[in-house]
Structures are given as C-alpha cells and as structure tokens.
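ok so i was messing around last nite and threw this chain in just to see what happens. nothing serious, just curious
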Amino acid sequence: MSQKSTNETLTPTTPEIREATALVRIFKTSSTFGEVFRRLYTHKFESLDIPADLKQRIVSPLIRRFQPWPDWVLRIFTEILFVDFPMIPRKTIFAHLRFAHAFVFELKFDGSMKIEALKFPGFDLRVFGALIGHCIALGESGLAMARELALAGKLSPEKLAEFTKDFSTDKVFGPLGDYMKARADSDLLPLFEGMVDAKRKTFDRHGCSKETTATRIYRAIFDDWTEVEELSGPTQLCKFLDSTLSAESKDPDRKLERVKKICARMGIIFRPKASRDKVTPSAVPSVE
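result:
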C-alpha cells in the first residue's frame, strides 16, 4: 500500500472515522442505555435531506420510545404478552418489564444509582418451567406455519431450513440439560409440571391463539402509544381506535364505554402536547 493511500485511510476526515468518532462521543456523554439508544437513533436521521419540520414530525414519536415509558404502557404490554404466556402470572410479567425498564432508563453509568436498587424480580421453578413450555409451543406453532407456507410454494426450501433450525427444540433442551446438571440435587418436579402444563395451555382447544377483541385493542394502543398519550382523553382515543372497536360493535356509546373502562383499568394518563408545553416544555421529544 502506498504512503498516500495509508494516509487517506488514517485521516480523521474520512466518513468512517467521523462516524466512529460520533458514536464514541455518544456513548461517552450519555448517562443511561436509553439515552444511548435515543441519541444513536437521532444521529441516523441527522443526514436525511428533508425539511426540518418534516423530520421533526417523523422522528419525534420514534425518539419518544427511547425515553422513560409510562406505567400504563407496561401494563398494556403485560396484557399482550399474557396472551402468549397465559400460565405466567400477570404480576410476574409486569415485574420483569419494570425491571427491564429500570435497567434501560434509570440505571446511571456514573454510579449515582446503586446497582442494588435494581433488584431482579426472579421467579420460582414452576414459572420458569411455564416459560419454557410456552416457548416450545410457540416454536412448534411457528414451524408448522412455515411448513404450510413451504407446501403452498410461498416459502423457499432454504428459508424453511432456516426456520427449522431457528425453531428447533434443541435450542431449549440443550441449555435445559445444562441447567438440570447444575441443579442435580434440586427438586425439579415443579419445573416439569409447569413446562407440561404451559405447553398444553398455550393455545385454545382448537390450537388457536387465545387473543380476544380486548387484546387487539391493547395491541393497537401499544403500537401507537406515543400518539395515544398526546390525545385529550377517552373520546379522542375512541375515534383513534374506531376501526378496531367497530369489529365488535357499531354502537358509538358502547364503544366509548369500552374505551373508558380500558382507560380506567390500565390507568392510561393522557398528556396532550399543549398541556406539556405549558407545564414541562422539556418533556417534549426533540431532535438533537
């Protein structure tokens, strides 16, 4: 390699070096994992050649997801997960979501938050077994769907082989065998009971998901929760969810009553942009 090409590779003005320098600066000057993710995401949009106001409208809702989530979003996420993991108590799912949330958004890199404050919720052997059983059932269902698509010519043999490998039970039973060896003196009966029970009860008696109309409403809210929190209240939310609610009822009064009950049950708190600007302007997501 010539001296000239070597210098060009090492020069700090190359795009690669500038990008690496920017990423290092983001990591060094951020205080939490959430801030790292938010600033990395924002950094990707800085080079977009679009009007600033359009960029703001596109990026702000996305950036909001990298800031602390309201508790009601975690409650709704719990309801969605409970459909696929029905033998794991809701309070257990919620506790682990809260732990993950605290780890990402509250744990400070500078040590100002003691790691002891992040107490892992833990779970007993039966719940651990239930988690394994549900994962096996969901994996088998996904593999069966992939085989159906392959038979219909909608999935290539290569993709089917890839799915077969990804959904292989070996990925579960391999680590499980190591776990059992490490706890050879323990009573593992609750684990196996939980695993068998959960595998049997993951789906309904027809082999279908236990999803309900409420689940579809929860999913619609969760998918766009950054927009939902900016609504003025249940009435606006009812209009926002109209297509989902109409699958169950066309009566506007019944739909509004349904939404009000969900808001009360989940503790949804609305924070319209106007009120946030008046009280806490800094809370509005911005592109840095």
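not much to say yet. Confidence is low (pLDDT under 50) at residues 5-10, 277-288.
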